[in-house]
Design brief:
Strand content of chain A: 15-25%
Strand order of the largest sheet of chain A: 6-9-10-3-11-12
Order of helices and strands of chain B: HHEEHHHHEHEEHHHHEHHHHH
Oligomer: heterodimer
Shape of chain B: globular
Distance between the termini of chain A: 57 Å
Radius of gyration of chain A: 23 Å
Strand order of the largest sheet of chain B: 1-2
Bound molecules: adenosine-5'-triphosphate, magnesium ion
CATH class of the largest domain in chain B: Mainly Alpha
CATH topology of the largest domain in chain B: ABC transporter involved in vitamin B12 uptake, BtuC
CATH architecture of the largest domain in chain B: Orthogonal Bundle
Radius of gyration of chain B: 21 Å
Number of helices of chain A: 18
Distance between the termini of chain B: 52 Å
Chain lengths: ~500, ~375
């Protein structure tokens, strides 16, 4: 096969941060009409390569050639004008503007210098519709869950003012599917294929290997900031790919399969009765036993996160009551929940989780410190020991407690958030998409961790877009549909992902 | 590459990247500018058992500003701002002086202490009010504190009946105009307040929690930080600092001037905080930086007099210096002008992390022209 000329060629790319060499001499090329996966562990340098390409970071070495001419973008805007559209890993939109405004911000349709609001709304609605999304484009973006926000970012990137894909040469998608459900992923793939047929070159990052094998033609693998290789997807199987990424063989996943969930769970820890919130989730009953892992399954917008937030007092309930350990507790603020040993790891680590300017250490101890109050700082020795322990346990890289959290790679930030709550040793740990953006090796580690926490008697409420993940870990599975808890399935051999999907589809009651 | 020169380069780099490097550099440069005009600028003489000299005066006259700016730092770190500090300075001074002036014996220690207590309680009330509006009612800090900024001056004038109250109290004079152990007493007051602030924020977890609230308010709520309580504390603390500054200013002149005491000091204080390297967006703060920032502003004021800038161009001159300082602090600007050596720390050319910088420049440029030379 005679290869056409690459539309984008990056050679010898070097990027250094103080104390970290994020990229050392990476080569990367992208052909028109291909979908190219950029693979690597958390912190391998994927996002950095993308940001160097689009001018978010300045280049320390190497050359970038776009369409045969050498380029160096000073800002993401320049890159966009040159035909490189990007969805960054952390959703980067304005939560208080409407969906339509977010899609068109900076390139609103105008006539006589005035914004044509009507046209903008209509076009936005069409674009959103084409992705199979049923949302109101005039509502503020913050009204929607993270997954929808991610989709809006994608819609924005593929629409360039005058129609879909017009003028786009390269589309960069950095973990666009990290919080999407199966259906949205399929819609996204359909869209990607359409753009690919139009000759757009697509760079795709994802930690879901199945997705890579489904949609990608070629892949480039990075490890520790160096290029490991470029392969056709058809030439390299999953085992080989993992081996390339982590430099050794992975058998952790197999281990987990053999790992039996603890059969006997203790007495009731938390009982919610008739708990609900208008516009959030219909009143539901839920019982969580000591040491039990309760998984929540449902589609995008089915109310999983809303349910979790009510149990944590992150939103105020309109109705119902919660008893913990037999005693009724008010759940009006996170403090109430934390006081009775409930912890909540939000899916949205950027907006609701981390404080980017603070260090890894400070972010990790924050929940514990807040519980102790400001007058009782954690003694330095104890603090450092705890932090070191969790950095090691979760393999946070770089293993430097002084590093600013904002400078960590996405997956490592997620681990910091997990560490923050683990350190408080809660009775009930609510994990909303805890493996979002986490690489395949670390994902297995975290799932193992959940199992062992449950063995030690901690209850866990587990939310994940991947049904397999929920199924593998949970004693009980709560199924949600249209903001209602419709069923409660006890995990067992007869429960399969298709059975759960059926329940979701039919909305049957237990 | 471990040649000595490489080692020096990296040490130099580490030094220039220290958060206090640019504020200190500017302070030193400003001090040096004075030397050609006042050759004995750096000399300190002992007269009547008191130390005199330009450096001592700078610290002395800068004391109220340092106090106000230190309080302001914590407010700004939570993502807020307190415009009412100037009014609080006036109210505290007015109450204290009018109480003292009503006494038969203005030199009675107990009366002076009681008077100061009354003034500071008023400051606490102002702080509680600001904190209540911001933390409980959710009003934007700039609006919430505007209320006392405007109304507070009126209150101060009511207290003084629109007059300037003069007093004659030796013990009270000590705070802002007296000497102790050869040094102006106010330097000790400032030292104690700064030390207490540093201990309060860094020895306890208060500093961390404040930075967390300012760095990401929603995340802080979800982590269980009692942000409201912290915000109220911080506004009260800021008001108390302003109150002490009010005592100092009225003590220095032995008079309470409801109209002019602490006028525009909020702008100088905000400027000092920004020069000290604390972002107006909230989050990380530096008390040391603020102290240096306040000294920079006071030195600037002094310099304007010593080098004889014509009165009409005073403010313009001040504004220019402030703009230069702010530009020097912007990593982006340094990278453009001096090249990579002084360039951005994180290598961000134009990403989100640089967002804090433009904000600094804008606000200070606005604040500068309005400043009064105190
Ligand atoms: N602004 C920054 N300052 C300092 N170090 C940084 C910065 N951005 C990234 N790094 C470091 O560069 C390395 C590569 O990070 P990058 O974000 O590219 O990883 P990634 O491959 O995208 O990982 P993930 O799968 O977790 O998203 C990491 O060690 C990270 O800590
Ligand atoms: Mg990344």
């Amino acid at each position: 096969m005679a290869e056409p000329r690459p539309v984008l060629e990056m050679t010898g790319i070097v990027k250094e941060f103080p104390g970290v060499r994020a990229l050392s001499g990476v080569d990367f090329r992208l052909f028109p009409g291909e979908i190219h996966a950029l693979m690597g562990e958390n912190g391998a340098g994927k996002s950095t390569l993308i940001k160097v390409l689009t001018g978010v970071y300045s280049l320390d070495g190497g050359t970038i050639t776009l369409d045969g001419t050498s380029v160096r973008f000073a800002s993401p805007l320049q890159a966009q004008q040159a035909g490189i559209n990007t969805v960054y890993q952390e959703v980067n939109l304005c939560p208080n503007l409407s969906v339509a405004e977010n899609i068109f911000i900076g390139r609103e349709p105008t006539r006589f210098g005035r914004i044509q609001w009507k046209r903008m709304r209509k076009e936005a609605a069409e674009l959103v519709d084409r992705l199979g999304l049923d949302i109101d484009v005039t509502a503020p973006l913050s009204a929607y869950p993270l997954a929808v926000q991610q989709l809006v970012a994608i819609v924005r990137s593929v629409s360039t003012g005058d129609g879909e894909g017009q003028g786009t040469k390269v589309l960069v998608l950095d973990e666009p599917t990290s919080s999407l459900d199966r259906d949205e992923v399929l819609e996204l793939f359909r869209l990607m294929r359409r753009l690919k047929d139009d000759g757009v070159a697509i760079l795709f990052v994802s930690h879901f290997l199945d997705q890579i094998y489904e949609i990608c033609d070629r892949m480039t693998v990075l490890r520790n900031g160096t290029l490991v290789g470029e392969h056709m997807v058809s030439d390299l199987d999953q085992v080989g790919l993992i081996q390339l990424m982590i430099g050794k063989e992975l058998d952790k996943l197999e281990e987990l399969h053999e790992h039996q969930l603890r059969a006997d769970v203790g007495e009731t820890l938390l009982h919610a009765e008739g708990l609900g919130r208008t516009g959030g989730i219909a009143p539901f009953d839920l019982e969580i036993k000591k040491g039990e892992v309760v998984g929540l399954a449902g589609l995008l917008g089915s109310g999983r996160t809303e349910l979790a937030r009510l149990l944590f007092g992150a939103d105020q309930p309109d109705s119902g009551k919660v008893t913990v350990g037999g005693k009724q507790v008010p759940m009006n603020a996170p403090n109430d929940a934390i006081g009775v040993g409930v912890a909540f790891c939000s899916e949205n680590r950027k907006a609701e989780g981390l404080v980017p300017d603070l260090t890894v250490r400070e972010n990790i101890i924050l929940a514990l410190q807040a519980a102790r109050g400001w007058t009782r700082p954690i003694p330095a020795a104890q603090r450092d020991e705890l932090v070191a322990k969790y950095i090691k346990a979760l393999d946070i890289r770089p293993a430097n407690p002084e590093a600013r959290v904002g400078q960590l790679s996405g997956g490592n930030q997620q681990k910091v958030l997990l560490a923050r709550w683990l350190i408080t040793q809660p009775k009930l740990l609510i994990l909303d998409e805890p493996t979002r953006g986490i690489d395949i090796g670390a994902k297995a580690e975290i799932q193992k961790l959940v199992v062992s926490l449950s063995e030690d008697g901690m209850s866990v409420l587990y939310i994940a877009a991947e049904l397999e993940e929920v199924l593998r870990l949970s004693h009980t599975i709560g199924v949600l549909r249209d903001r209602k808890l419709v069923a409660r399935l006890t995990n067992g051999p007869e429960i399969t992902t298709s059975r759960i999907l059926e329940t979701i589809a039919s909305g049957e009651h237990q | 590459m471990s040649t000595p020169s490489a080692a020096t380069t990296s040490r130099w780099r580490a030094l220039t990247h220290h958060h206090l490097f640019w504020p200190v550099a500017v302070l030193v440069a400003l001090l040096l500018v004075n030397v050609p005009f006042t050759p004995d600028f750096f000399s300190i003489k002992m007269t009547d058992g008191h130390l005199y000299g330009s450096l001592v005066s700078i610290v002395l006259f800068g004391s109220p500003l340092i106090l106000v700016a230190v309080g302001m730092t914590l407010v700004i770190a939570t993502g807020g701002i307190d415009l009412s500090v100037g009014a609080v300075v006036a109210i505290t001074g007015a109450l204290t002086c009018s109480y003292i002036s009503d006494q038969a014996d203005q030199n009675a220690l107990s009366a002076v202490f009681l008077a100061m207590g009354v003034g500071l309680v008023a400051a606490v009330v102002c702080g509680l009010w600001n904190g209540f509006l911001v933390a409980r009612m959710g009003i934007q800090p700039i609006i919430a504190t505007l209320i006392i900024m405007v109304a507070g001056r009126g209150v101060a004038q009511l207290i003084t009946d629109g007059q300037i109250i003069t007093i004659n109290s030796e013990p009270y004079k000590l705070i802002g105009g007296g000497y102790w152990l050869t040094l102006p007493f106010s330097i000790f007051v400032v030292a104690v307040v700064v030390a207490v602030t540093v201990a309060l924020t860094r020895r306890t977890a208060l500093g961390l929690l404040v930075e967390s609230v300012g760095g990401n308010a929603e995340a802080s709520r979800l982590v269980g930080i009692r942000s409201r309580r912290i915000m109220i504390m911080v506004y009260v603390f800021c008001a108390v600092c302003a109150g002490i500054a009010g005592l100092m200013i009225s003590s220095n002149t032995s008079a309470a001037d409801g109209n002019n005491a602490g006028l525009w000091i909020e702008l100088d204080a905000i400027l000092a905080v920004v020069i000290g390297g604390t972002s107006l967006l909230g989050g990380r703060f530096s008390i040391g930086g603020t102290v240096i920032g306040a000294l920079v502003i006071q030195t600037l004021t002094t310099t304007i007099y010593t080098i004889g800038v014509p009165t009409q161009t005073n403010l313009v001159f001040k504004a220019v210096v402030v703009i230069v300082v702010c530009l020097l602090q912007s990593p982006k600007f340094r990278a453009k002008v001096f090249g990579a050596k002084f360039g951005p720390k994180s290598g961000a050319a134009s990403g989100g992390s640089a967002a804090a910088e433009p904000a600094k420049t804008v606000t200070t440029a606005e604040a500068a022209p309005k400043m009064e030379v105190s």
